[in-house]
Each structure stands twice: as structure tokens, then as C-alpha cells.
Amino acid sequence: MQKKQKFPLRTVVLTGVLTALSVVLRLLGWPQIGTTRYDLGFLPIAAIGRMFGPLWSGAAYAAADLIGTPMTGQAPYLPITGCKLLFGFIMGLFFYKKRVNLGRAALCMLTVTAAVDLIAMPFALSALMGKGAWAILAERLAQAAVMFPVRTAGVWLMDRYLGKYMDRY
């Protein structure tokens, strides 16, 4: 009888490819303005979460942050990387081996927006930027208002059109 692998080759390779795609989508996004960034780098991470679960998607988003941050001319900052890890983990919890309808996508992105964008990230950025967390929260509210519908629609559309391919994994 063959022993089950801890890290199946297909999972590792596909996670690596989608993590690289996340970095590319981050680089193609809007440049960072203050404490906010508008990009679609979360979409490949949502696919990882849907196919392989929260641990893989959390680790992939943390890796994408560690790889992509120096490419934008900044140094990696571990509290922000921790926020990205939490973001990916939450998406994996909501999407793992489930079809993503609009309600599930909205609930997931509402959780991410509240937990990561409006609670964890302002505290991580306040230490980095020397501003109070409440001042940063005001800037993050504008980003949350823009990105919540973009993230919700993006994840839902991705699953609607690519879900049958993701079901294979």
C-alpha cells in the first residue's frame, strides 16, 4: 500500500504558480497610496483556498507578500505579512471544497474586511507609519468601501466560470 504524501507534488506546484500569479496581479494593481493598495492579487489565493484549504491559502498569501513587497521597492514588514496570512486563511475557511455563491462570497469578504482591513491592518500600519490606528482606520474605510464589492464580485465570478476546473483538485 502506498503511503499518502504530506505535500503532494500537484498541490505544491499549483500553489506556487497561483502564488506567482498573485504577485503579478499585485504588481499590475494601483500603486500604493498612503496605507491603501488596490489590486486583484487575492483572486489566485481564493482559488488556492477553494482547492487546498485554509493552511495552503494563508501560507500562499504570506509568501506572495514576502515576494511581492520588495518588487514594489519596499521592505517586507512581518505584521502586514501576518495580516495577509490571516486574509488567506479566512478565505480558505469559507471556500474550501465548496461552491461559492454570492452570499458566501459576501460573508467571507465582510469577515475579511472587518477582521483584517479594519482591525488588524490599522494596528500593524500604525507602528510602521507612526500614526494612530484611528487615523489609519479612516483611510482604510475608503479602501474597504471600494474593495468589498470588487472582492465579492471577483471571487464569485471566478468560481462561477472556473469552479468546474477547481473541483478537480
Record the SSE blueprint.
Layout: H1 9-28, H2 42-52, H3 54-71, H4 78-95, H5 102-129, H6 133-166
Largest sheet: none
Q: Helix count? A: 6
Secondary-structure element pattern, one letter each: HHHHHH
In percent, how helical is the residue content?
A: over 70%
The quaternary organization reads as single chain
Task: Based on the coordinates given, report the CATH architecture.
Answer: Orthogonal Bundle
According to DSSP, the number of beta strands is: 0
Q: Estimate the mean pLDDT confidence.
A: 91
CATH classification class:
Mainly Alpha
What would the CATH topology be?
A: Arp2/3 complex 21 kDa subunit ARPC3
N-C termini distance: 22 Å
Question: Structural class, from secondary structure content?
Answer: mainly alpha
Properties at a glance:
169 residues; 0% strand; Arp2/3 complex 21 kDa subunit ARPC3; mainly alpha; single chain; 6 helices
Characterize the structure shown.
With 169 residues, this protein is an all-alpha fold. It has one domain: Arp2/3 complex 21 kDa subunit ARPC3, CATH 1.10.1760. Helix content is 76%, strand content 0%. The protein is built from six helices and no strands. Helix 1 packs across helix 3 (54-71). The longest helix has 34 residues, at 133-166. The radius of gyration is 16 Å and the shape is globular. The two termini are 22 Å apart. The mean pLDDT is 91.
